[in-house]
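Practice problem: predict the structure.
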Amino acid sequence: MPDLNEIIVKKVQRSERYGFLSGFFKARESLFLCLSDLNSLAQAFEMEDLMNLLSGKRYAGAIHRQADPRDFENALWEVYFEELKVARQYLDDPYLTTYLTYFHSIIFSQEEIAYDEIAQKQFDQRLSYWVALSSKGTPFTRELSAYAVDRFNITELFRSRIHQKDEYPFYPHGNLPKSSLEALFDSRFQHLSKEILFSRWHAFFDNEKAYKSLSFELILRFEYFWLDLIDSLLESPMREPYGINYILAYFLTFMLEIESIKRHYLRLKFGLPSYWMKEGSGR
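Answer:
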């Protein structure tokens, strides 16, 4: 694990130093999937439809590796890492690359923590390190980490209720205190504390007030809402003309797009039911 103090000492304080890269990536925003592309993804019924869409995009190389899900996903991420090399080439900033690396391993690499105590401990350490890194960054990184902590605490509460366990991990430095979340679940989403009311979680829990029991569909809707929440947090920094916030948001948007493509690929590859995919806006 990199030394946090060393990274912070080396962190570039003047955002103007990011001007060249910000301009470079601003010009490349057109390479992201547009709304019509996202709609086409959602409406694809055959794998051929998905591949035809990707053939004209920067992920075209993944088409030749569509036979195996792991190879296909790796091909998508290779495009991301090639772009990240540009940032590393022109900006030697350990904060940028360390932050993105930990975000990816925390948000999009969760398979290993399910029921493995050693992996869970490693996850705790990674999350704690990323939160500390976020606290030394900007208001944007601090807000993003707080909502990530909320997401994991809510997920752990879902797990504890499904498996009828009184004890469960609760991570510090989120927006929502443990007492508020427990009261929320005890009341079947009827009790919305002030912390929830004044957070971005309010819309989800308010919409789910009618739920009668925990179900796969409810948890799935929560995961889709969480991805939309990240997307909404990226809107403001993506509008910034330059700076570390913009560059981080650019690559986080890249991650969300890859995850969206992957989900649609898996839906078509394994014939998953339509409710497995989100219906609505967002990536």
